[in-house]
């Protein structure tokens, strides 16, 4: 019998609203396959379109609730702001509709267009006014030059902080051609993108100024836990531009939380040491193979006390930072 898992913060659903999706530019839906083609790139994982399949998996694995977010192929970082507004209205309405089929089990993480900071802030304001405080976004965009510590993002962080909002940051593909072989854009580039976002938020002082917002980093924080000490050392010895008055990165990192998807018990212990054992949340990355489809087996070598905390963790009740 599996142990009870209170909450999965990292589960993906690609929402399909048949009456609306056909009219969206750049999007093709084949219900027979089923397959969704986004700007020429196919997404053909059948379960990702089916919230009922997610709930069935949750029942099998003892997961009480899941917060659902769109998978990276649906981020569409290349859209201009008007087109991005249309697309994000669609996917967020779709997430709400998918979650609404299982209101006691699923809840949406409304997606924010990180490449358009003013629009992202506007979506937060609209959703907060309607009573929603949980969001997801790409952890920046190498291709489109999104630097999330830039002043253009001040309104976004202020809006999230005022609402004590939750933001799940998930990496996207980088633009370094050396990552093309061996599936390294995903295996190595993604963790680096996550660490880059964490460094910008910590070293800029954003995490100091906005302590009520809750930022959750995907995949155990990526490579952030491994470089926390190095970033702090750079601030301490005043490497050019490293110190701008913010607290040491290793301290600021304690303001993040992260999911538990590291595929390594020592790496998970490091993440717990950097972020805090009470700030490691369960995530499955459902339905993708790089996640934890069998959490009992895949976390079998994790220290029992830490695993118990992860399985019981509730992102709505994180300890104060």
Keyphrases for this structure?
single chain; 321 residues; alpha/beta; TIM Barrel; three-stranded parallel β-sheet; 12 helices
State the CATH topology: TIM Barrel
In terms of quaternary structure, the protein is single chain
Helical fraction equals 25-40%
Based on helices, strands and strand pairing, what is the structural class?
alpha/beta
Query: How many alpha or pi helices?
Result: 12
**Computed Rg:** 19 Å
Q: Could you characterize the architecture of this molecule?
A:
The protein has 321 residues and is of the alpha/beta class. It has one domain (5-317): TIM Barrel. The protein is built from 12 helices and 12 strands. It has helices at 18-21, 51-61, 81-100, 117-129, 154-162, 184-203, 206-209, 224-236, 249-252, 265-275, 295-298, 304-312, and strands at residues 5-12, 27-30, 35-38, 41-43, 63-69, 106-108, 110-112, 134-138, 166-170, 214-217, 256-259, 280-281. The strands form 3 sheets. It has a 6-stranded parallel sheet. A 3-stranded parallel sheet has the order 1-5-6. A 3-stranded antiparallel sheet has the order 2-3-4, with no helix packed on it. α4 (117-129) runs parallel beside α5 (154-162), α6 (184-203) packs parallel to α8 and α8 (224-236) packs across α10. The longest helix is centred in the N-terminal third of the chain and has 20 residues, at 81-100. The radius of gyration is 19 Å and the shape is globular.
């Amino acid at each position: 019998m599996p142990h009870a898992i209170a909450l999965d913060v990292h589960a993906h659903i690609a929402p399909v609203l048949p009456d609306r999706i056909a009219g969206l530019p750049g999007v093709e839906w084949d219900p027979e396959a089923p397959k969704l083609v986004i700007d020429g790139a196919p997404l053909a994982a059948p379960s990702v379109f089916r919230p009922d399949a997610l709930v069935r998996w949750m029942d099998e694995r003892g997961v009480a609730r899941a917060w659902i977010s769109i998978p990276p192929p649906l981020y569409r970082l290349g859209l201009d702001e008007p087109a991005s507004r249309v697309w994000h209205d669609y996917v967020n309405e779709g997430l709400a509709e998918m979650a609404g089929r299982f209101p006691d089990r699923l809840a949406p993480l409304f997606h924010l267009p990180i490449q358009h900071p003013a629009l992202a802030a506007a979506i937060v304001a609209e959703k907060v006014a309607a009573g929603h405080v949980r969001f997801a976004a790409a952890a920046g965009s190498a291709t489109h030059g999104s630097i999330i510590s830039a002043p253009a993002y001040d309104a976004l962080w202020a809006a999230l902080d005022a609402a004590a909002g939750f933001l799940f940051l998930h990496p996207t593909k980088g633009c370094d051609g050396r990552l093309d072989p061996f599936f390294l854009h995903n295996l190595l580039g993604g963790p680096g993108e996550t660490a880059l976002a964490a460094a910008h938020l910590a070293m800029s002082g954003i995490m100091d100024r906005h302590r009520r917002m809750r930022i959750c980093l995907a995949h155990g924080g990526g490579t952030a836990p491994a470089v926390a000490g190095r970033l702090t050392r750079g601030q301490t010895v005043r490497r050019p531009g490293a110190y701008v008055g913010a607290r040491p990165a290793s301290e600021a990192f304690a303001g993040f939380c992260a999911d538990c998807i590291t595929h390594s018990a020592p790496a998970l212990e490091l993440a717990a040491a950097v972020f805090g054992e009470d700030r490691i949340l369960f995530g499955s990355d459902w339905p993708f193979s790089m996640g934890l489809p069998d959490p009992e087996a895949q976390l079998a070598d994790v220290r029992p006390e830490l695993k118990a905390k992860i399985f019981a963790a509730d992102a709505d009740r994180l300890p104060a930072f």
